[in-house]
């Protein structure tokens, strides 16, 4: 049985909870048709303040997830996983609750709605009330909520978040947020009732309160230790992220709201607080742990560029799809593209741990279309080379290249870098061996004929050579006789007859297994017979046009279940699923292989790499889907 006031009244409404802001909007709109607009003005202030509070938390969340800025300042090194993100999904419930509480207070005390814009005396009064009432009240309440009953039935929800994040500050029960609303409201009501209230003071106090709450939960140390060396008394007046993190990791200490002075007075100060803060601050200038494996990705397009944890954490935790709310943000994405093109270098985007090994995703600051601009090729290769050399310098074991970063026309599938730097310690991997394996293992054993586009590409060649040894007839779509014959000669003599050159899509009108390595139009898809299945290794994926056919997704594998700290989806992949070239690098790292995997795919290693992937717990992902 749930404890009283432990759940939210609107918890079953989902996104429809935002309709509760409707009366505020209606009041503001209705005020246009009446003379007395004092109440409408108050409702407008409530809406503006709620928006600013949400924006404050979002900014802190974005900053916290900018690993390229905060990675060396992080206090708890683990990542935020999907479970925590889901648990904190409705972190903003308290904003709505406090808006309703503020409205109730105004109706009970009508004089509160008629306040001046600014009153300097109110700043002193509200500060005194905060220190004298809010700080000790919160300290006592917080300490009480760590008692056996209150903690297990209420406060444990807040502490269930293993990694403090700005949104964690809002992750609490209904009762706790009511009390927090009281802690915030007492100085505001007090200053107003004493005649020193003002609109500016209310805005300022609430936003500073939220700022400090986010600061304490951001999980990276931003306050320099030199501040406390220069002004020792400040460490009793202002807590730090390290200080509050200790409360989450060593429950029973550091209960204060913002001022450690009350932990000193209450004898609940963690003795490690200052030393740990100094250590974290000093070490922020040093490089953190070296990753064991790096996946070198790139941006796909303007909309998917927004699918990153430092934009919207919840959005990045689900497979990417174009949403309407992204449209107003496209100018921001365009601006970011220009800035990255001119000034940026490869940067850290996400990370996770697998069996104690640190895996990171770095991003080459280039968008997909730029890879097809002839004048941009040299600059892109320079960026990729820069990332490889940095990984080599740091001591990374394996770096795997994502789709366009290993384009054959761009750098020969990575051979350019390996040949240019023969003494690389980091292993450069294109991951296409496992990509080929994933595609091939999806093809049923009883298939006798396939149609292959992109047939002379790196992957197309490997797929054709592998299938012909299984006595599968491969219709290779290509206009180049020379390239076809070169591939055909690589096959054992007794299997060369299974490789057939075709030049038109009509040749596959009776073939139900299409392997697409080159983008095909809806018109070209029409040549496939009813019931055909489209396997694919083309970027971007083909548009599913035929309702009487099925379509496969890009080759992918599910990471092992013991992956830790994974909280973002890789492009359109499901949670916990990565592209096969990413998975290929993971397998290369876990196996400890010492060779580079660049250039042409070694067909004889396809089964070996597949078995190694399965051995380490990676699993194939069913990619069959049908459109309605």
UniProtKB/TrEMBL annotation:
Transmembrane regions listed in the UniProt entry: 39-70, 91-110, 122-141, 178-206, 324-343
Cellular component terms per the entry's GO annotation: membrane
MF terms (GO), sorted A to Z: iron ion binding; oxidoreductase activity
Gene Ontology biological process: lipid biosynthetic process
Record's keyword terms, sorted: Membrane, Transmembrane, Transmembrane helix
PANTHER family assigned to the protein according to its UniProt record, in alphabetical order: STEROL DESATURASE
The protein, known as: Protein eceriferum 3
Gene field: CER3_1
